[in-house]
Amino acid sequence: MQDTSIMKIVPVILSGGTGSRLWPLSRASFPKQLWPLITEKSMFQDTVVRGKGDIFLEPIVICNQDHRFLIAEQLREIGVENARIVLEPVGRNSAPAIATASLLANELDAQTILWVMAADAYIQDVPKLVKLVEETAAFAQNGKIVTFGIQPTRLETGYGYIEKGSVIDKIKNIYAVKAFTEKPDIRQAQLMVETGGYLWNSGMFMFSAQTMLQEMKRYTPTLLSLVKKAVDNRQSDLYFERILYDDFIKVPDLSIDYAIAEKTKAMVVVSADLVWSDIGSWNGLWNVSQKDRSGNVVIGNVFLENTHNSYIRSEEMVAAVNDIDNVVVIVTKDAVLVSDRNKSQNVKKIVQKLNAVKQQEAVWHNQCYRPWGHYETLAHGERFLVKQLIVKTGAQLSLQKHHHRSEHWVIVSGIAEVTRGDEVIFLHENESVYIPLGMVHRLKNAGDIPLIVIEVQSGSYLDESDIVRLDDQYHRIV
């Protein structure tokens, strides 16, 4: 094995999922990895922090283009300023995302070691994980694809499994890979755990850019060719690297397991004794969360009576739960979920039903984030909509107009600079302005504190699609 003392590793964070099994908290507009579910940081931030240290370079983040400003803001909050943020116009699964990261790294150095992690997994002992990465990096440097298998601690049908083959390095617990198994039924899972020859598939991989591209050229040449074209045609967009829709939509939707892991001869697995969870359901989150003496996880304004082994979370209003066991109760500002905790995987079916009837709560939160700040819907009726806008210091909305609505802005706090047609006016607390239908306008925070505005919309069509942007400092294409 080569000396790894001067090797640098690039963390690759895959953040493309929507986490529909954790609805109503996780939705397409604000998925689970961007929420603080276990620590004070979001799961995405916790994942990025794992890859901060002397042996790591700045990360590559592959994310949905709709989340780009949230991703950038969360990186800024944890002091990561030079990450490469790559925007996917449409989700095409893990194989194209990993191909993208490998091609980008290969442009600089084919020997670059990449450590791929999903943004929505929980790992308790991070120093132990980082030590495993250090100890096994030499295998990646020498042409292997290292995957991290987790020693099972219970029967689990929600995870994939890896069957260990022959021992490669007994001291480092590294094995050949005999087979990958998709999520098993309960009987299969019981057999796997009892035999002891199986590991949970964590979805973490480590390899050199050169090795991954060689294996993709061998096993998925069409996918690699299409991704390479998309990467070559990418555009710079502020501090993002944007993949074009017309290129990426042609790429096959394929997981890295199907594309490479189940076929390659270069795969090895390290058996990791770690507390790990992919947080794939409310039950999974309950398993890794701190519980009270009755086995309950309680977050928010919650009151319990004779309730046990449950996960209860309320984002704002009072939630009272009486005389039940093994349930999940989630209360957001616009939706409530009640589920058997052990069957919370089926929440995904609820989301499918909501999507089928175009219920906006399936996708959108009551609170929506934008590069300038965020807004929250307060009231909605026939021909009117009331929102609270919070504009960050120094930020501004796009110069825009509307074809179907007029707007009335009332300043709650801060100083607003308002462009209204040909005039520019400054408004302070308790002052207001009216924006007629069709008038060009812009709102800017001209003060040193967040600008809070109540916006009252009225008109025949009150949707975000009724925005005609004439100028935008954030270069928003979508």
TrEMBL record:
Q: Which InterPro entries match?
A: GMPP_N (IPR049577), Man1P_GuaTrfase/Man6P_Isoase (IPR006375), Man6P_isomerase-2_C (IPR001538), ManC/GMP-like_b-helix (IPR054566), Mannose-6P_isomerase_type2 (IPR051161), NTP_transferase_dom (IPR005835), Nucleotide-diphossugar_trans (IPR029044), RmlC-like_jellyroll (IPR014710)
Superkingdom per UniProt: Bacteria
| Keyword Magnesium attributed | no
Mannose-6-phosphate isomerase type II C-terminal domain: from which residue to which, for each copy? 359-472
Its GO biological process annotations read: GDP-mannose biosynthetic process; polysaccharide biosynthetic process
Q: Which SUPFAM superfamilies match?
A: Nucleotide-diphospho-sugar transferases, RmlC-like cupins
Looking at the keywords, is Electron transport present? no
Positions of the Nucleotidyl transferase domain: 11-293
- Protein name per its UniProtKB record: mannose-1-phosphate guanylyltransferase
